Amino acid sequence: MPQTMFEKVWNNHLVASPEGEPPLIYIDLQLVHEVTSPQAFDGLRMTGRKLRRPDRHIATVDHNVPTTSAEDRLHIIDQTSAAQVNALRKNCKEFGIEFFDVQDASQGIVHMIGPELGATKPGMTIVCGDSHTSTHGAFGALAFGIGTSEVEHVMATQTLPQSKPKTFRITVDGTLPYGVTAKDIILHIIGIIGTDGATGYAVEYAGSAIRALSMEGRMTVCNMSIEAGARAGMIAPDETTFAYLMGRRFSPKGKAWDEAVAHWKSLPSDEGAVFDRELHINAAEITPTVSWGTSPGMVTSIEGKVPSPDDATNEIDRKGYERALEYMGLKAGTPIEQIAIDRVFLGSCTNGRIEDLRAAAEIVKGRHVAATVSAMVVPGSQAVKKQAEGEGLDKIFKDAGFEWREPGCSMCLGMNPDILSPGERCASTSNRNFEGRQGRGGRTHLVSPQMAAAAAIAGHFTDVRNWPNNGGKN
Amino acid sequence: MQPFTKLTSIAVPLDRANVDTDQIIPKQFLKRIERTGYGEFLFFDWRYKLDVPDSVTPNPEFVMNAPQYKGAEILLADKNFGCGSSREHAAWALSDYGFRAVIAPTFADIFFSNAGKNGIVLARLTDDEVSTLMQRAQTPGYEITVDLEAQTVTDAQGFKASFEIDPFRKECLLNGLDDIGLTLRHSAALDKFEAKHDNEFWSAPKTATA
Ligand code: SF4
To answer: What is the pLDDT of residues A81-102, one digit of tens each?
Structure first.
């Protein structure tokens, strides 16, 4: 019977299907960071259990490291943050986990370094105590976020009991218009299906517009699967995937590489495979997309207006709209292009990759950030930072008045000192516009890197499709 | 984990949809390395006033602060409760505050599993049933009963609704069973699988050798 890619990966990892219990699946790789792991390590110590497979764990620090300077990262002033970072250092040593510390050339946001190291590969099962683990699905891996009890479970057994999700294929066909990016694809999708639209499903993104994306773009799409409620997002591996992985530190070499590629080529969904649900989207209809509210489903086109609670189709949404407008300090009917911003954040595991920085740099080159705006670039990883500096992107940003920071999660969630003040409005390339996400009272609008860059220059949202210097890169 | 059989308690009607885990427990409290003590930070940004920085003055407009809901062990909410971040701290905070059951039309996936692992029963009722309970919970002293064994939610005024729960999860909650212990019963199957799987080199995160 024809199988979906999800089913193939699932079946390859099925350890046991006990009667009356959820199936037990094997986990190939667990990524570990400082925030969701200390209680799990403690659990192992308390129960006298061992870490079963240290070789299937990789750790780094990202969520609460300062991004201001290399020095500030070594001596974290915030004592609770420092304690968490130290706890991870100690735990990795005690349990024998390979750890990429703040100053390591491979340090970065956990979802950036997996792919960069070649640890993330097609056909694997990958988990992390972080919901954006769905990012790794861009390689055709089954990757999902888990809670700390599950982190401990994987540490102790390298398995997880998991109810089997249903399958959902979202096909995006056609060519993305000039100035429209992977970020706009996923914001557009969430706008259509809602923040719980994919709850209970593993989503596969397919179609010519997805195939045409670089690995960076695919990661952006898969990253935000969780924002639609999906357990995981996946994209079939192909030549783009193989080219990205070739020669990376943990990628197979020589004969093993050829064998791996042969296996990877067997993973895409078979012709005729049946999905529990299907959705088709025409890429040509997608426009640069901006979120206006406090949930990633509250999005509209740059050509659009802030909606009115009366536009909601039901009572619950109407209340949600009202509350969101109040929190965001917006009036229904305001054209999106007229919304002025105070801050710009370029970074995160959604859009902190080299291609994102290149695209944004292309917009800001030779221009200057508006006098009313403070803007910063936080590369997602040390590798991206180094590469960007090699290409002179840091200079372009700094000349334009952006701050150029050290890698980490930064203002995506503001656990480190990078936060918005109450009432401040931010164009952000991150993934969540929840109340207070970027700082208590802060107002977040989710956009693509190009749109964030253009907004920084203009001082308000603006349609990047009209910008002469825009290379039209996706 | 504390076993859950049957609970009768007053209930807090949190009339909001898409309550995300960033609201349940804001990030500034995720820096702790302990598993307990999160209750005082539950719904922090809603529960305390924003005007004074770092203030801990309760916001009287937030429903949970109304004296009539003191000691509530049941939380009522609208659809998609617990969406967003995977932080288990959300479940720890609810449980540490004293909530043992949440009733809503739908819950987000990761939260669903985190709650279960912390002995919190999540009961999915229909929109209409939840709004009936929300209305009634406005009355001081109104109590709801969640019976896990019978899979029902009832009140003294004759309200009765049933909810679905996966039999395995139910068993674990009823008996307060630890998931790792349960998995270790499958050690033989795991050892066998792992020996074979380790030879499938594509599955290894670090395959640097030729
Ligand atoms: S960048 Fe943001 S979304 Fe990504 S792992 Fe860090 S905090 Fe989470």
So the answer is: 999 999 999 999 999 999 999 9
What is the predicted ipTM? 0.91
Domain boundary among A161, A181, A197: A161
Q: In whole angstroms, what is the distance from residue A453 CA to residue A362 CA? A: 9
How far is residue A303's CA from residue A433's CA, in Å, rounded to a whole number? 20
Instruction: Look at residue B135 and tell me if it is in a domain.
Output: yes
Measured between alpha carbons, how far is A462 from A460 in angstroms, rounded to an integer? 6
Q: Does B94 touch chain A (CB under 8 A)?
A: no
- Cα of A248 to nearest chain B Cα, Å: 9
**To the nearest whole angstrom, how far is the Cα of B202 from the nearest Cα of chain A?**
6
Mean pLDDT value across residues A435-462 = 96
pTM of the model: 0.91
Contacts of B202 in chain A (CB under 8 A): 121-124, 252, 259-260, 263-264
Q: Into how many domains does chain B fold?
A: 1
Kindly state whether residue B111 falls inside one of the protein's structural domains: yes
CB contact under 8 A, B26 and A87: no
Say if A70 falls within a structural domain.
yes
A146 lines ligand 1 (CB under 6 A): no
Given A128, A146, A161, the domain boundary residue is A161
CA B44, B46, B49, B52 dihedral sign is positive
CB of B96 within 8 Å of a chain A CB? The answer is: no
pLDDT of A150 above 80: yes
B138-190 confidence digits (pLDDT tens):
999 999 999 999 999 999 999 999 999 999 899 999 998 888 988 998 999 99
Q: Whose CA is closest to atom 4 on ligand 1?
A: A349
Residue A187 located in a structural domain: no
Domain boundaries, position A68:
5-161
Residues 6+ apart with CB under 8 A from A254: B210
Query: Are A141 and A124 spatial neighbours (Cβ–Cβ below 8 Å)?
Result: yes
Higher pLDDT among residues B207 and A166, named by residue: A166
Confidence band, pLDDT 50/70/90 cuts, at residue A356 = very high
Q: Is residue A394 part of a domain?
A: yes
- Inform me whether the pLDDT recorded for B208 exceeds 60: no
Q: Is A388 exposed, middle or buried (0-12, 13-18, 19+ CB in 10 A)?
A: buried
Contact B80 A157 (CB under 8 A): no
